[in-house]
Design brief:
The protein is of the alpha+beta class and about 350 residues long. It has helices at about 50-60, 100-110, 120, 155-165, 175-185, 200-210, 210-230, 250-255, 275-300, 310-330, 335-340, and strands spanning about 15-20, 20, 40-45, 65, 70-80, 80-85, 90-95, 130-135, 145-150, 190-195, 240-245, 265-270.
Length: about 350
Amino acid sequence: MRKKRGAGSCAPRRGRPLAYGWLALPPPSLYDAGIRVKPLTSYTGKLTEAQAAALRSWLQAHFYQFRPVPYARFAADKEKTSVVFYESGKLVVQGKGTQEFVEFVLEPEILKEARLGYEAVLNPDLLLPRLGVDESGKGDFFGPLCIAGAYANASVVKAWAEAGVRDSKNITSEKRIKDLAELIRKTPGGVTTVVPIGNEAYNRLYGKMGSVNAILAWGHARVIENLMQQRQRMNPPPVRAISDQFAHSKETVARALMGLGREIELVQKHRAEEDLTVAAASILARHEFVTRLGALEKQCGRKLPKGASAAVDAAAREIVDRLGAEGLAKVAKMHFRTAYRAQGLPEPPKTEWRRRA
């Protein structure tokens, strides 16, 4: 027998379609376990002649496949996105890539305006005052580990959305990262902090803690504490801190929290960079990492490639030849297998990774 909806049911009710999706009453929280906002798969709007021309040029430059469509000025497809501009001036975007296209192409590149998006309609939690935490440099052999945090209220979130703030991994231009980092720091009402862990300190911490996750947990906790020490600048005070769930157990970070950090809710979730505060933190962390990596390059007199690759191996061997293992430890993370190869040491045995139930 189908169970009737009770008066106190928290299941979403059907509503009328809005510009960005369906209104659910009451709105589910993005942070409730297992609940995700349904992505936007259809968008309709109007374009001016200039905007239409700009869009067509953008589609051509990004290798969209054009096709004939009745009553359309142009139509083009690529992967998960279909774009059709009709003679009436109406634009229709459809497909699984619609939301990303609207947020990262149409609004910032063509319309020259941006909105927070339909998520705020479905989830007022997205406008709640909160902290976001993220890191950069974890997977890079050369350079520090940088962990950053940002506080935002509703007005700050909207300002960042309009400026095009998003996960730093989706921004390829270092100049764009630099410009956004400066904007994030200067946004009225926002509060930021960065905790850089230089290579020598990182190697000491790894020797003591024996785990990258333990270092990350300490760093995330330190960032949250640093932000909470500035809570007098936050109006209103934050209700939660959000970070990526990088460890199997959420207790890894929860146990590392310090006094002030324990006063607010800690939310850890996969793909946390979808939240604007975490995205802002990722940009701050990336900018700090790139800046410090550049300083290390001047210090050791050569380019230090990012990530882990054959070019990284070659650079590590050259540094060991010139400066020894001690010199390498000043610019690199010594628990990486690259460090063993550069020194001619046997690599530690690989441990088989198994998914836990």
